[in-house]
Structures
1.
Amino acid sequence: MKQINIKLFMVAALFVVATGCNDEFFDVIPTESMTDVTFWKSERDVEMALTACYNNWEMEEYPYYMDCEAGNGYSQYGWEGFLEISSGTQGKNGTYWDYGRATLWNYERITRYNTFLQKIVDVDMDADKKASYTTQVRFLRAYNYARKVNLFGDVPLVTQPFATPAEAAIGRTPAADVKKFIYDELQAIANSDALPEQNDAQAGGRITRGAAYALLARQYLYDKDYTNALANAKKVIAMPCFAIYTGGATPEENYLGNFRKANQSSSQEIILAHQRQTPSYTGAVWGYTLPSDYDGWSSVVVIKSLVDAYEMADGTLWNESYAEHPFDNRDPRLNMTVLNPGSTWDGVKWGWRDGNNNSRSGIYLKKYLKPYISMDEAWDSDADMPLFRLAEMYLTFAEAAFYLNQETGTALGYINELRQRAGHVPATALTEDLIRRERRIELCFEGLFWDDVRRWDWGSKVFKCNAQGYNFEHDLDANGDAVLKKENGTAYVDIYNRDYDYVTTGYLLMIPQGEIDANPQMKQNLGY
């Protein structure tokens, strides 16, 4: 949101305290808290509470860290907790770091939203604003439940703040019932006149009708309801406020413009983003991805599996016979997404790095970086995090159309619009492999690949294998290109073994053990 400031952060923090900050029993405390006496009295109170609801409504780390779990990248530090799934160690050592996944289970956000929806009813304020604010928070709640049900399966469906922790000790609601709630909520939101038809730049990070239709399209696709996925994607695509971003001077600027602050204010492609405002509300994505000489940690890096998915420049598939120069003559989006030795960035050739806080795969994620990041900026990134883009709706349309055998020509046209805006050659036929490859490449590190792996049942492709990186010579060759060196017959290095038991778990994550211990009604997922 554009108007976040220190005062509103203090109010947001107060609101969080007022609606619960204890992990057990969904972080609730009695609603007769002291703040109820002095708060919820005016329209201004509601506006500050709405700001609190938007505060941290999605983790900034989620999109790119989840791709590390799903097989596109690697997160090298165990204390960050994102390596446990794909390595098959989640829960085995008795730990469950809440930096990411447990935070998604945590019900603090849900309690915050439920409290807002309960309290706003009795506030005397402008009727149109009340309807708009209520509808926005209903979306945030539906979004959070969609995350939860996709990751954990059956989850408690809580739609009102509880008066006591004892009342909150309930069991898990069947996933089908939770999804029905999500679909019903989103359909009502999308059909309401309370939200505008605007892109994210116009709406300033607020929820819009397009966002409601986009989440409907995404969830229907995940549930393989292709008819409804297609219908809702079409509604977003038809809105005149959205268009694929082509405002850059080069194909690279067109593709990466959606991820750079300087372009986001003019991009019509972003449907909804988690917005940041310097200096009070900035992110750490640069620090997580940059190497040590930029004061980064290299926590999120690309691995060979993703690089192999990119086509050659002529549209043919990658073949190991090209392995001497794996980054040359490829789909242009590869060099827009990855920094490898020999890449030009910051006006200089990107070299090989070794030692702590550098990539173990030998390559780095470029997608979210802007040029010329100083060491002082590494942990102060200002770019918004796109969570829904029109490009995703194009690919949702294409996948649904393919399985329904409807509008396949239009679907191929959408895919080619994405390929050609990045300078790649058009595809000639709509196939399942093309659609899946395009989703993986176009949307990589945007938080969607885990759910793609789950619904495509790609566990054998990404979880039962070694994650690999590249064994580079320390020096570039005379042409300034990276050189792979073979040792023991291979130029690749094994980073870690992926051995997640996706069959037993059904791609569901472990419920935090603290929730099981605190609530006798809570049962653990299989495989943990």
2.
Amino acid sequence: MFLTISTTGDSDVPATDLGFLLHKHPERAQRFSTSHGTAHVFYPEATAERCTAALLLEVDPVALVRRGKGKGRGGAPDSALAQYVNDRPYAASSLLAVAMGSVFSSAMKGQCAARPELPGRRLPLRVELPVVPARGGAGLVERLFAPLGWKVTALPLPLDERFPEWGDSRYVSLLLEGEQRLVDALRQLYVLLPVLDDAKHYWVAPDEVDKLLRTGEGWLEGHPEQRLITSRFLTRRWSLTRDALERLALARLAETEGAESEELDNAVDESVDTEEKPVPLAVQRREAIVGALRESGAARVLDLGCGQGQLVGALLKDARFTEIVGLDVSMRALKEASRRLRLDRQSERQAARVRLLQGSLAYTDRRLTGYDAAVLSEVIEHVDLPRLPALEHAVFAAARPATVVVTTPNVEYNVRWESLPAGHVRHADHRFEWTREEFRGWAGTVAERYGYGVEFRPVGPDDPEVGPPTQMAVFHRDATDPTNNPTDRRGPGRHRDTTDPTPGTETTASPPAATPPAATPAATTPAATTPAATSPDTATTPDTATTPKEEKAA
């Protein structure tokens, strides 16, 4: 990627003052390491009449793949399609913007200790970028830069000069000319280059709003394309865009009133937190599980697929749970759970209440027998459907606790997650995600087969159209069942749904025909198979928010 900034001058005001502003000496060629390659700064010409500073960014494609978000939500689309062969090393984009912010950081802050008067001076600037992706064409380039006082020359580049009939590519050769302060020019390029590309090579977090307002101060507030700039810079994340636009509107009002933004935005006393903070879905899920275990009277509890031990930690806080066992197939997750729970610092009595075991739910395990309750929190969707019967047997037939609590995502609710692309599951490792009907069909079959009754409860906001984000089934073993061979039981299953108009009533239902099929609207079936997964309390953005319109940080 290549960028040049030129200016002119005379003997009284030499053009080489550009070196003071950029904090880079015209007689030296300097080299800087970046997270995705190497940046070079040099001066092809440096005289009193004309001075040109060049920034050359050599992008390392391997580093781009390893460090960037080459796949998944938020990644640059070109990187996702072709990680090693794409336009990232050549076309000016967010990679060049980030390099500018690093190499010219003092210039972008308007600092010049040697010549303090220079940052405020307007210079005749000429900015050239040979290749710039412009999703919107040369017309969009004009709409973005012309209102800022630039004379814009954006020449579309052909797809192939040998085949003119193929037409133009989505790239332009960009030339900007105008009398500007250097600090303003750098800040505008920092924001507008990724806006033209309509992509970023890194995940956009909430602090990106502060970055946008800081670099856009003085020119973004009144820009006619403010909404488009804000939306594209924040990769179309609706909640972040709304926050940025509200703060820009407040800054515009403050400028009109001749006051500070803080003076106008004084409706809330910051010394007193009057706003109720949203409760993350993961916390609501743990609270619902703990509540169900308390109702059952369980004292000895299994957390199957315990992950990093969030639920184990919640159970430890309640003295009624005298023995808690966390089981997971991942030793790494168990080590992290031990660290989080600080088992090495617990009192001897408290530490004796907890055991962390490695094991797979695809096999029966004698260590899991004799417990009052078992929890499968966000676990079953990590198991391939052909292996799900093995998990059912290991839990409901072999371990056979009196109570089993199962939670799983409700795929119908996925349409409410703004940040979740259509057709995608909430976590890359999910083998399937069930509708409410499919989950109840599976739970009813399991209850009938192994001699349990089952009730269903919503977790999180219960949407009248698509239901809750998480669905929970609570299985209670039939205390009147005299047999110790539950796989031979073929009596009717008993179902109770706490979302019905008459909660608390039990009805006898005919068993579902079969386990729900693998093909659901958002199901995925990767080639690799894993017997069981960790609890996804640390999973994707939807599981860390209370409503789809409010985000954490995924």
3.
Amino acid sequence: MNSNGLTSKGFYDMKHNKNWFHRLLISYIPVFVVIVFLLSVIFFVFTNYMTQSQSKKANDIFMEQALGNFDRTLKQIDQGILRELNYNEGLNGFYFAAEGDRYNGLALPVSRLEQFVSGYPEIDSAYLYRNSDGKVLSRNLIVPSELFGDAEFIQHIIKSGGTDKWQPVRNYSEYNGHKPRRVISMVRKAPILYGDKGFIVINVSVDYIAKMIDSMAYSHYSYIQVLDANNYAINQTGKATEASTSLQSGVMKSAYSGWVMQIGLKDGGLTYLFSSLTILWIVITVVMLGIGIWWIIHVSKNNYRPVESILRQVRTGAFQKGSDKQAQGHDEFHFIQNAITELIDQWNEFQQKHRQDLVYRKQVLFTDLLQGRKIFSPEAWQEQLATYRLPIQYTALQMAVIEIDKSQQFCEIYNHRDQTLLKFALKSVTGEMAEKHGLAAWGEWIDNDRLGVLLFLKEQLDEQGTKAVLEEMHQWVNEYLRFTVTTGLSSPAGQLEDIPLAYDEAVTSLKYKTVLGLGRVIYFLEIKPKMDSDVYHRLQLVRGIVIMFKQGNEEWRMAFHNLIGNLRDEHAVKDDIVITMEYFNYQLNHAMKELNAIYTAHWESQAYPALLTFLDHYELLDELADQYLKLLDEEYSNITAIHDSSSNRSVIRQIQKFIDEHLVNPDLSLNMIGEAFDMNDKQISQLIKQELGEKFVDYLARLRIQRAKRLLEETDESIQSISLKVGYVHSLSFIRMFKKMMQMTPGDYRKLHRTS
């Protein structure tokens, strides 16, 4: 049984090996045959193209010469007529000889006409026509035109006025009833200068010209056809060809006669073209095919032997593993293909996992460096740089944080897929710009809208150069992407341990985009944050704005602009702006609740909630200011309406005017105002509190300090003099009140504003 089994297995192997050999031959031989066939076709097509190209050139030259000969023949006849009419008095005698002068008027013209016609074998006939009596003179007769055989043509010439061009092919007979002949005619008026006596008609034989044309055909497989202006075939061979199929290879039109010459192959010409191909080339092609097929078989046998050996080993291995059934169901190459495919899949899977792991570990390392969670020795740091293909040699490090402006709007406009693509583009262009300028950039997304970039500086590019690189990146983003970015750039970091500090500087720089604007590079060393020593002054501005707003004083807008300008001039970061505007919201809300109940309900349900949302979604100080002004303008109209409808409005205006006029009076009090307006102190106090939103003493102190500030800023008067001018008898009381409200003495306030 073992012997039978081996024999069966060996037969099975031989059978499959033979099948694979045949399959290889079936694969190779058709390709070889097709290639040889295509090469032969290309050769025939190329040869045919070159033949046609050369034939066309030869045809063009031939047609140009042939038409030139025809044109010269016709021109010679035409010029001969002109010479006879111009220089030979014999022909003109028919028109000018005296009546009865038969020699000059008849015999001599006939003789001259006979001489002229006999000098040109192409001319079939010629005759003269005289306008005075309508008679026609030919070589054979003189008759009235109506009795002449060509009377119809004469009438046509008379009606059309004649022409100096050759007439198309027509039938001509000298005698009525005679068989007509095909001619082309040239008509010239006589005499030449005036043309009022008659005309001469020269008829050229079409049959003669046709014989000339047919004699030019250089092969019984080709044809030459000449057509007149009416597309009438002049030569008989061309006319016969016109009724049959043909291959036209050239056309040319005469500028003089208007004739068209055509050259082509007659019926059977295409067959002749192919039948005339050399039999030797076909024999060579067949022989080369046979040799090539034999060569393929011979080479395939030699090259198949190593494959046959491998297939035997694969087959043997399949039988040894007990997969005889599987081996019979699949060919040997199937096992090899499966093994290679499995190996490639495992390698690709390993490579993909390795890349993913490398990307993840690189991101973690980047975050740890920014947070200062990892410290490496110089050798370990060099090893990390080499692992992630980062530059080992550099002079300094610099940190940049690129933030997408208006990130909430960015997320609303683009879906997650588009956001990923745009972020990839931003990261890629940052790296490309850095590489373009000889920099290396390591960028990772550290937040949803922030890209951290660690820049490796070299000697040829300093920290100012990195700013130029980032600005070029900004320009590209503005031009090709539909969003903007703001970049915070740190100062150079000399050591690895300084990276967290550089990161903090870059993040701090971004805070100033609120006042400096979006879409720019903010370099940490270029911004000059001001010490916020005047916070109390800013809060005083807020309280003043709220009071003027509540009182309906139009100056609140100017005060609000001053507050925004103060924040901008001091380079206030976003946190300071938020604190200031939250205090503004608090003061304004507190003041609005003191108005009548109808407006208070509107304020609490609509205006104040809208005001609170402004601080949640802003990026620029100017945007925030515009939002506040829009809402405050609407609410100011409502407050003004409330004040205008108040019955005490006119009284409070008079009281305010009285206070302004007596502000310098130290004795100004509620009692003094009450006496002036015939009201008691309590009524005056309640009225001021209700309409102006603050107590009388606070209102009076604020007005006096405001006037004192203007005097300190604009004059050089002493503190004592200024205190008297604002209603304080004792300068000490004035200084105490000024310091309470402004958190500094009058002298310090003057120095501060004079210095600025």
4.
Amino acid sequence: MYVDIILGSFYKWGKYLGRIGKDILKLIKCKSKTEKNNSMKNIYLIILLVVWASVSGAQDTFRIKSGTNIRTAHNSFIVFKNMNLVNNGSYVQSVGDGVTRLTGNINTTTTGSGTTTLDQLEVFMNNGNTHTLSSLVSIRNVVTLSSGQLVTNGYLTLKSDAVNTARVAKVTSPVSPAVVGEVMIERYNSARKAWRLLSIPSNTLQTIKQSWQEGATNGTANPLPGFGIQITGPAGTSAGFDLSSPSPSMKTYDPISNSWVGVPNTNTYLIKSTGAYMTFIRGDRLANSVSSLPTETILRTKGDLYTGDQPTLSVLSNKYATIGNPYASPVDFTTITKTGGVDDKFYAWDPFIAGNYGYGGYQIMSSTNDWKPVPGGSVTYPSGIAHTTIQLGEGFLVHATSVPGTLSFSENSKITDGNLKSFAKPVEISQIKSIRQFFRVFLFSGINPSDPIIDGNVVAFDPVFSNGIDGNDALKIIAGSENFCSIRNTKILAIEARAPVVNTDTVYYYMSNMAKKVYQLGFAPENMQTDGLEAFLIDRYLNTTTTISLTDSSFINISITSDPASSASDRFKVIFKPMAALPVSFTSVKAYAKGSAINVEWKVEGEYNIKNYEVEKSIDLTNFAFLDSVQAKNIPSSNYWVADLNPGDGFNYYRIRSNDINGIAKYSEVVKVVKGDSKNEISVFPNPIINNHINLQLNKQPSGNYGIRLINKSGEVIMSTKIEHLLNTPIEIINIQKKVSHGIYQLEIIKPDNTQLNINILF
């Protein structure tokens, strides 16, 4: 028997479509403006539950006629039991929460010339029964294979776009293989011109030409707009490349030579690989040069799915290996089986990092650093947010220290969610519990808060670590752009694991490929404040020693000039020394306007062996500069003052530094004076933020309600609140209740007149 959806044959909202057959119950709630409307071509199924409870062994058919469009709304759940689907129209399921389940104790099919686009497909066929596809079916979210078998005949496509990428969940069906036949697997790439490290998630027999070049016969051919890329290489068009180029745009890694080698040709070279391809993506096939405007594109391969346990992959001793995620699903690196010398870390390629001329760079995730990326600082890998996910279509590198090892995937490696287009998914911070100490350093491309991080490194201190080089350390893969990392025993490191820090411990830094400009170093200690130590940055070029806070972030500008010594690889180091209590205490510090100048006064008690006092000034509370100094009197109680004869309009900040005869310094609190007619503006001080308190300075701002939102680089709203500002209250204090990781955030302020102001702040 057939159940046909016929144009106009539906009822008002709240009515049922009816009952056909003794044992077939259709609970199809429909809506329309009239009870019958033969002109409507769309049937909207709202919170749909279709249960085909047919007689055991009987077979029914659900037929959608040509010209009929069925589109389900949210929370739809459709069960086809012992039911064939004949779709000559259109059947589209809602994105994000729609489920179509295939079940029954007989074999069933999907046929027809129409379009079937599902959100979630569940296969629950009993007793090893099959559901066979003989018409095109696209999945936008997830395929679940719990029992029985799905025969694709090459008609199944896992879709990928800017919103979502379809995946295959952990396969639990006892039938092996649970999927028979080829599957088309898509992988969306955003409109960004960059290198990407990509894997092949299908056991395909396609060549590079057939897959990522979409079978194009020449460099100007574009068989399917929005799909495929241009691939170039030195061998030119005779080898299948779209254009001849001095350097290849698609490469594989050779562990013996520790280099990337271009693929020899695309006509005959099969794209299937257990490794990964470093591929330069300019956009789709219309983007045929480096100067082309970047566009979105989708890469796809067609072949059998990899399911079940995968063959073991080998990693050579003291070598890197590229690994491709074999599954059409994200996997968790921590659940991949690793043996021998394979280190508990992986190197991911981030196309959104600022390094390598904007074309991407490595991010290193390691258990040593609680899986937080190094250097971090991009929209895909924010600083301080742990990552352990390898996305569908993503490749990565691993390293084996001292002895060779192996790595293998199983269905248990898959994760249940995570299809971010950015190729990165954060681990919940609650999963990370560590009392480990970290001394992190970031290299910013400039001195403005909005300037991106281009490199960085971390030193982790823990009793479980040794001071030798082993698998807990992460070697640095030197990039073609700026590098700032640590160095120990001639090994250049991105992550350095050490025994607990002690007096005179020294971290030596290595830098290279620096441009002639001013950069900023950001130091971010974590759990370092309890050791009674102080840290000092030694600059061999300027011959200076600068105190680095172990309780809060510190930012120091460094200038690279035409003098080669300014870019010397060993210019910087940090020395840890025991904190010495100075015999002097500041009892008061104040600053006030006097005529056109500002006087800075301070009182001290208990002077002993004090050399002098230096007054430092800042206009942004981030960069302090020397203003003046006075010699210490070394008497029990003293008063001092200096005058700032050239204060600027607006905010002027001051602090006092005492220096003893042993070279140990101590700072006073910071005081502030507003000079002249301050600007009608909104600002944040201090910036970076201290102790999760945002001090919002509202100079001459109107009274009223101000909307405040704190947003991270991924666009996630960390905090949202409102303040009621009064004209005579220049400072509003906003307390952040949750822990905020180190990094750059945007403070969004909606004024009473609904105008918006965005301020970049640093935690």
